[in-house]
Specification:
Elements: E1 2-4, H1 7-14, E2 20-25, H2 31-43, E3 46-51, H3 61-66, H4 71-81, E4 85-87, H5 91-94, H6 113-116, H7 120-135, E5 139-143, H8 147-160, E6 165-169, H9 189-211, H10 216-225, E7 230-238, E8 252-260, E9 263-268
Parallel strand pairs: 1-4, 2-3, 2-5, 3-4, 5-6
Antiparallel strand pairs: 7-8, 8-9
The protein binds adenosine monophosphate.
Adenosine monophosphate binds next to α2 and β5.
Length: 269
């Protein structure tokens, strides 16, 4: 595995690659990331993974500072699985002239997490745009765990880099139902138990929520009794009606964002 930190070197290494799969990550690699990477290795000639904790997309400075960073462990996991290139740029390599304030993203970016994290999705799209311009991948891999991000980025890529195919990958969960996430490293044992209970409640009640035989306010009350200190939102949306062109098939998902201590978790079930 070639480890590359500089844009110029990156260009040299990947110049001739015509069938490159790209998996952008913020590191603290887990089985969720590995499922994307395995798919890329299976579908493409070469696979490049980036680890870049993208500061502009964090709206709480403590969240950025606390974000898990375990580079040595990440490198050994990525080597073992057969990644060809690992791109580890610095902030200045990616933002030599600061952020792009004119980036245009779909209005869906104002809903769900966008209501609570202003400009978050603009910053995510900005960094993905920069990486695509450097790497020119044939395929780029995103997880359904971050469904809103996936839909917004997919819309942007279709409009601006139509030669890149976005590959959506299923959410990988622990046996207890928790969606794998780098932020889970920040949870205590008890907090993990609560997260698992929340997953189970939402799964069990999903159909009742859709039928409205049970209300979101009731579910919220139940979740608060478990020890959650804040729920940003619980919403049910048809993922095929989020961004045009709409599909006929209806797929409802329950979207949730909540806090355990100071750790913010999101999921869609
Ligand atoms: P992150 O490092 O959290 O920015 O995630 C990098 C990529 O991995 C994103 O496309 C995520 O949606 C995806 N991802 C994170 N967790 C999971 C998971 N549990 N299952 C599938 N994909 C995931």
């Amino acid at each position: 595995m070639k480890i590359i930190s500089h844009k110029k070197k990156l260009k040299k290494f990947i110049l001739g690659e015509r069938n490159l799969g790209f998996v952008p990550t913020m590191g603290a690699i887990h089985k969720g990331h590995l499922s994307l990477i395995k798919k890329s290795i299976a579908q493409c000639n070469k696979t490049i993974v980036s680890i870049f904790v993208n500061k502009p997309q964090f709206n709480r400075i403590n969240d950025y500072k606390k974000y898990p960073r375990v580079l040595k462990k990440d490198i050994s996991l990525l080597k073992k699985i057969g990644v060809h290139y690992l791109f580890l740029p610095s902030h200045n390599q990616i933002y030599p002239d600061g952020i792009n304030k004119r980036i245009k993203v779909h209005p869906f970016s104002k809903k769900l997490c966008g209501k609570y994290r202003p400009h978050h999705f603009e910053s995510v799209v900005d960094v993905v745009d920069r990486f695509i311009k450097l790497i020119h991948p044939k395929k780029i891999y995103f997880g359904e765990k971050d469904m809103q991000q996936l839909k917004i980025v997919e819309d942007f890529i279709k409009k601006n880099h139509s030669y890149v195919k976005v590959v959506a990958c299923k959410t990988i969960r622990e046996k207890n139902g928790i969606a794998l996430s780098s932020r889970n490293f920040l949870l205590s044992f008890d907090e993990r138990m609560i997260a698992s209970k929340i997953y189970k409640i939402l799964r069990m009640r999903k159909n009742n929520l859709i039928k409205k035989s049970i209300y979101i306010t009731d579910i919220k009350k139940k979740i608060f009794t478990l020890g959650v200190n804040k729920i940003d939102y619980i919403e049910i949306l048809d993922i095929n009606k989020l961004i045009k062109p709409y599909k006929n098939k209806v797929i409802y998902k329950v979207f949730i964002a909540y806090f355990l201590g100071s750790t913010r978790l999101i999921d869609n079930i």
